Amino acid sequence: MAEDSLKNCPFNGDTCVKKRVFVFGKGKSEGNKNMKALLGGKGANLAEMASIGLSVPPGLTISTEACEEYVVGGKKLPDSMWEEVLVAFNIVEKEMGAFLGDPIKPLLVSVRSGAAISMPGMMDTVLNLGLNDEVVVGLASRSGVRFAYDSYRRFLDMFGDVVMGIPHTLFEAKLQHLKNAKGVQLDTDLMDLDLKELVEEYKNVYLESKGEKFPSDPNLQLKLAIQAVFDSWDSPRAVKYRSINQITGLKGTAVNIQCMVFGNMGNTSGTGVLFTRNPSTGEKKLYGEFLINAQGEDVVAGIRTPQNLDAMRSSMPEAYEELVQNCEILERHYKDMMDIEFTVQERRLWMLQCRTGKRTGACAVKIAVDMVKEGLLNKRSAIKMVEPQHLSQLLHPQFDNPSAYKNKVVATGLPASPGAAIGQIVFNAEDAEEWFAEGKSVILVRTETSPEDVGGMHAAAGILTARGGMTSHAAVVARGWGKCCVAGCSDIRVDDTSKVIVIGERVIKEGEWISLNGSTGEVILGKQALSPPALSKDLETFMSWTDEIARLKVMANVDTPEDATIARKNGARGIGLCRTEHMFFASDERIKSMRKMILAVTPEQRKTALNALLPFQRSDFEGIFHAMDGLPVTIRLLDPPLHEFLPEGRLDEMVAELAAETGLSEVEVLSKVEKLSEVNPMLGLRGCRLGISFPELTQMQALAIFEAALSVSKQGIAVHPEIMVPLIGTPQEFVHQANLIRGVAMKIFSETGSFLDYKVGTMIEVPRAAFVADEIAREAEFFSFGTNDLTQMTFGYSRDDVGKFLPIYLSQGILEADPFQVIDRKSVGELIKMAVEKGRKANPNIELGICGEHGGDPTSVAFLTEVGLDYVSCSPFRVPIARLAAAQASV
Length: 891
Hints:
- With 891 residues, the protein is an alpha/beta fold.
- It has four domains: 65-259, ATP-grasp fold, A domain (Dna Ligase, domain 1); 270-356, ATP-grasp fold, B domain (D-amino Acid Aminotransferase, Chain A, domain 1), CATH 3.30.470; 397-531, Phosphohistidine domain (Glucose Oxidase, domain 1); 550-641 and 678-888, TIM Barrel.
- It contains 35 helices and 34 strands.
- The strands form seven sheets. Strands 15-25-24-17-18-19-20-16 form an eight-stranded mixed β-sheet. Strands 27-28-29-30-31-32-33-34 form an eight-stranded parallel beta barrel, surrounded by six helices. A six-stranded antiparallel β-sheet has the order 4-3-5-8-6-7, sandwiched between helices.
- Strand 3 and strand 4 form a beta hairpin.
- Helix 21 (561-569) packs parallel to helix 23 (603-628) and helix 23 (603-628) runs parallel beside helix 27 (695-713).
- It is an enzyme of class 2 (transferase).
- Residues 441-521 form the PEP-utilising enzyme mobile domain.
- Pfam families: PEP-utilizers, PEP-utilizers_C, PPDK_N.
């Protein structure tokens, strides 16, 4: 049947209309598990369960394309579609030997939504559709008065709430009033006559609320329910769910209409929900709940307190054994943990639904490893079962129960660095460090951060900024440290003077407790409970498989020896970016020497300041070479504009501070500061332009690298330094800097009589560099794409200001994704592709990588695998996620 149907797709009959309705049941189906895009997850899995011989109540699925047609057509159900539904429904009726609206042989159905991707809570289920005053009498004669009228009153409530938009509370009020009048507490204490009375009261709710009678025609009920499912696709909660979870590209929701089986036909009936393994831990044991004499929504909606599945084993042993067998069949068939809904009607088991079960990170990893051990999966298939957010859960602290704090969320920004943090708020880096030294947990709140804040950022449990995007200073630094960060939170106003956060009418003062969810961007009042990262032997095993399979190497972006140690621990295969500028902020002595160099008037003054910086740089490089122990280390020469190294604050205060530090007069300092001032510093004197303007700066850094490398090499440790020149736009710029570096190398090798291999390469981050990549590749030994700046210059977006308009662009569909998080294939992606092709053509041995934050994004990693890069580099804490993404891109 399935093959015949699929042969006829996509057209059906003489009308040449795409097939929109698919029947399933009794060991045959018109669909299968591979048709989720068309039938939705529920519909595809129902069809699959039926086709493999499980006891599935028959039914039909209306496709997602039909939903799209309904929405595009002005939310009207085309006559041809309705006719197709009736034809398919007639097949189901004949299979069941029961008919919709027939009092003698009544057929009741459930109506559910089901998109290709599970979206919990999109539209509630309607059960018992088909009941009216005539049908309920026929049902009562077959199944008893109590069962029939209990089913009828449930249907009136559900249909009114879900389809007609009548608040459930109105029905609940009628029920409570009747129970009070009868002097009973439980629904089950109501007598048969009471239920009949309740049905009349529920029908009155329709008149009172809608001014119209309850629609008693079963065909009209079905039509209205189908339309309600289609309408739910654009409901606010569905739209919000898709937005939060970045679900795009779906046509709509399918509609699943399925014959009812009843779990509320006495003590030999019941209903339940289960997972084939524990969804929290991954333990191989059925995990679920069961209710005797109940319908499915009683379990899902929490109307009654269910029992453990063991209760079913003792009360219905035969049905339980069949359920266990079915679970084993489904796991073997789907090769995954399944989420199953079932009903037992008078001791007979019916499987109502199955889908891939939602799970925690710990569960996902354990199931993947266990299923390989059990022979259900091979390693390549297991790699695909774990999602990046699963690893994120394992590597960062999380909130115990996010649903518990929903009413305390006061603002939402960008989820710049995952994890969770709680702390008392402070407004400057100095206070953060002081409070941290006193043993306090702090959240550093800034309008935006600068490199001068790094001490406070490091001390803080979490960081909150009012401005800045996903690749702002705060975001990049926080991710590098694995520290929770919410950036670009435009809901808040930071008043540094008064030391308060203003959110609308609310004022939060210094020292008050807040919590941050860096995975969602939520800012929460008070202290919320945290769970620590959960690492395991299974995770170690799983990550070893990713390295076996991945074609791309994963490197790390680091600033300090401590970062390098973490990177190696997390599985980095080397350092893809060591940012030398961050080393200058490590102590007051370093930053003061740096400022003396910047403000130097003569070359001699500059050389003196650089000589003071040399031992600091050399010491840090030695620490990094030690930590990486034989792995390659790529060191970027100084990149940011020099003004970033100057103190913040009022100009007169800054000038006085710098004069005191450097011994220059305030007039000399003011003159120099004014010369450093730029209209657009991110496109000004930075990167290789600094090294060309001040060649002694490049020479000092190269000398520190080679002295450190030779020192560590003499200790018997293999060292592989790779020196990277930033912001190259022309081959001439690269040649200038490369000659300086190689000149320093030749001099020190000659003086010491020691030699080692090294490489000199460049970052491709200026669009022009991509266009002349072949010319640059003739001189360079490697390229590393700096996608943060490449994106900034390609789009013309300031990455520190993008938070002001990017949320609007994303919500209105102007952009599909944040280009600073996911590589835009049409622009930045094309530049990368062109540079790769030109570079490899000119220099087949050139090594190609990426060191922008995109190196930790799974979607971007898949693209970079396609274009043929050799490695990606990301923050140390994103290395495991990048390793997973690289493996998944290779299978």
